[in-house]
């Protein structure tokens, strides 16, 4: 019975497309997205996120794509995978999930199931989404239709820990529906599933995964600031401490992306709604959000010491995606670095072999440029650990810079400090 129910995946980004492809290999599946150009691209067998190969797309023989809401009418299971961002003051922006719920509700029928995968605060599915589904469809929750929550756990750009290899948390609005949803995901997830006791528990489990990671990175970032004042290298300290078996291997850095820098605000938002003001979580967020400013100040200080005229200088920034070997620029904190440099009067040139120049321009107003031996800069910030940057030797890095005493900020600690200094660099790393 389950295998005969047609599935619709709502939202075909980094989360939705891999899910649609896996289901589309075995059963009738509709991949739906409001972006018509995205649909055209996928119909042509291309994925600009690079999450799914042309071979995998071609192998999903039962997968169709559409931006026409009428095509949703013959579906019985709706899986919502739209983004859940934050606004300019770090409040949850539920607009995408609200709009998706309204769209699904127009096609909702008796017996249908709506499953949410988008990261939300505990209670969002039942308190925000369900009332929309009821209002627009005219149907009654847990009588006419049912809901579930199964949080996404994909890691963009990761070709090892892919969708089917990550344990899937599942939940449903009734015990019977929970079992049906669990069986649905078990049909494609080879790593197995973990049935949560309720939808709220599943929502909370997801949001604390990245909150925990965010706080651990915040600790190492704060340690980096302290060790910088003490004149010792943070990575040296962490490597020494890491010789103990139970020391956690976190590293300092800029915390961006669609999850780690966003999800904690969903949890703190809900906490404040129920009368509790989080202290530790928000402190971690403040530290991480301040790292771009801290790093730029350290670079500027070194440039001034080296006699570089800051307001007449050009700094090259290598990388703008939020992580290595991935074209994803969502919530990239490199843009904060660029803004801080410009506040100091610096001319900034950003280059990234993975990023889509049109998307970067549209999202951040930054035009990607060139940094090479013919387009030299006064100092460098290597912000992202793309293989293309990681593989550069120190001589190649030096060829990108003019002047006798350039500064190199090695944000990801990719290079040997001694070799960089031999090339004349003043080195900074978190």
Question: In a nutshell, what does this entry contain?
Answer:
With 430 residues, the protein is of the alpha/beta class.
Description:
With 430 residues, the chain is of the alpha/beta class. It folds into 2 domains: 2-199, 3-Layer(aba) Sandwich (Rossmann fold), CATH 3.40.50; 290-430, Rossmann fold. It contains 16 helices and 13 strands. The strands form 3 sheets. A 6-stranded parallel beta sheet has the order 3-2-1-4-5-6, sandwiched between helices. Helix 7 (199-230) crosses helix 10 (280-289). It is elongated, with a radius of gyration of 24 Å. The model has no long low-confidence stretch (mean pLDDT 95).
Low-confidence stretches: none
Question: Any idea of the CATH class of the largest domain?
Answer: Alpha Beta
SSE pattern, N- to C-terminal = EHEHHEEHEHEEHEHHHHHEHEHEHHEHE
Number of H/I helices: 16
Query: What would the CATH topology of the largest domain be?
Result: Rossmann fold
Q: CA-to-CA gap between the ends?
A: 55 Å
What would CATH call the homologous superfamily of the largest domain? NAD(P)-binding Rossmann-like Domain
Q: Would you identify the CATH architecture of the largest domain?
A: 3-Layer(aba) Sandwich
What's the story with the biggest beta sheet?
6 strands, parallel
Shape: elongated
Radius of gyration: 24 Å
Summed over residues and divided by their number, the pLDDT gives a mean of 95
Name the beta content range. Answer: 5-15%
Structural class: alpha/beta
**Tally of domains:** 2
């Amino acid at each position: 019975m389950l295998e005969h129910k047609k599935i619709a995946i709502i939202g075909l980004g980094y989360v939705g497309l891999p899910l649609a492809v896996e289901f589309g290999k075995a059963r009738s599946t509709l991949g739906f997205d409001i972006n018509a150009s995205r649909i055209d691209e996928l119909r042509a067998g291309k994925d600009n996120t690079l999450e799914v190969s042309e071979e995998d797309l071609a192998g999903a023989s039962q997968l169709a794509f559409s931006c026409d809401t009428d095509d949703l009418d013959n579906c019985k299971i709706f899986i919502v995978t739209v983004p859940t961002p934050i606004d300019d003051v770090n409040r949850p922006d539920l607009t995408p999930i609200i709009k998706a719920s309204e769209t699904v509700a127009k096609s909702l029928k008796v017996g249908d199931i709506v499953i949410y995968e988008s990261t939300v605060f505990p209670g969002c599915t039942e308190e925000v989404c369900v009332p929309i589904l009821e209002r627009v469809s005219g149907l009654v929750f847990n009588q006419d239709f049912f809901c579930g929550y199964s949080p996404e756990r994909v890691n963009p750009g990761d070709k090892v820990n892919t969708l089917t290899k990550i344990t899937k948390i599942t939940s449903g609005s009734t015990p019977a529906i929970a079992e049906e949803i669990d069986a649905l995901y078990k049909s494609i997830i080879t790593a197995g599933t973990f049935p949560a006791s309720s939808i709220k528990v599943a929502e909370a489990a997801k949001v604390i995964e990245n909150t925990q990671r965010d706080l651990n990175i915040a600790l190492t970032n704060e340690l980096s600031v302290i060790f910088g004042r003490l004149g010792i290298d943070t990575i040296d300290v962490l490597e020494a401490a890491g010789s103990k078996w139970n020391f956690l291997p976190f590293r300092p850095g800029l915390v961006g992306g669609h999850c780690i820098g966003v999800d904690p605000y969903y949890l703190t938002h809900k906490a404040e709604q129920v009368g509790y003001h989080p202290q530790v979580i928000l402190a971690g967020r403040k530290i991480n959000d301040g790292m771009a400013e801290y790093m730029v100040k350290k670079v500027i200080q070194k440039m001034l010491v080296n006699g570089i005229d800051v307001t007449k200088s050009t700094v090259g920034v290598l990388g703008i995606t939020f992580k290595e070997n991935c074209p994803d620029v969502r919530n990239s904190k490199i843009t904060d670095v660029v803004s801080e440099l410009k506040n100091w009067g610096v001319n900034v040139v950003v280059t990234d072999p993975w990023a889509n120049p049109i998307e970067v321009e549209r999202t951040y107003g930054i035009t990607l440029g060139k940094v090479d031996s013919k387009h030299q800069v006064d100092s460098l910030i290597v912000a992202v650990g793309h293989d293309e940057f990681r593989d550069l030797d120190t001589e190649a890095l030096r060829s990108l810079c003019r002047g006798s005493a350039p500064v190199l900020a090695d944000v990801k600690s990719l290079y040997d400090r001694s070799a960089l200094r031999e090339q004349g660099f003043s080195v900074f790393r978190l």
